[in-house]
Specification:
This protein is of the alpha+beta class. The chain is 43% helix and 13% strand.
């Protein structure tokens, strides 16, 4: 890190994008938050605090980072985001199975 706390050109800055999607209300997923550096860290911390699953996908974050906040994702990203939601659904089902096994 360079003097003054700024990252050097060689340092990777953390990036994050948060999505929301309600099939009953939304035509497509919506970018709810995005940021780099400390903002990204805050987004990730908030997700963890609320039990929201986190997936590392630098390519998808880069693409979603071009979408404005509170805007729907473009159609060309539907397939990639569908893969993300399938991953999240699988995690949710596994968690439900674990909870059912404990009861």
């Amino acid at each position: 890190m360079q003097r003054g706390g700024l990252p050097s050109m060689n340092e990777e800055r953390k990036k994050a994008v948060a999505l929301s999607y309600d099939a009953a209300l939304d035509a497509a997923p919506i970018v709810k938050a995005k940021g780099v550096g400390k903002v990204a860290e805050a987004i990730i911390a908030a997700a963890r605090e609320h039990g929201v699953p986190i997936r590392q996908d630098p390519t998808l974050v880069e693409l979603l980072g071009k979408v404005e906040i509170n805007e729907m994702i473009p159609e060309e990203l539907y397939a990639l985001v569908a893969e993300l939601f399938a991953f999240l659904y699988q995690l949710d089902q596994e968690a439900k199975g674990e909870r059912a096994g404990k009861g």
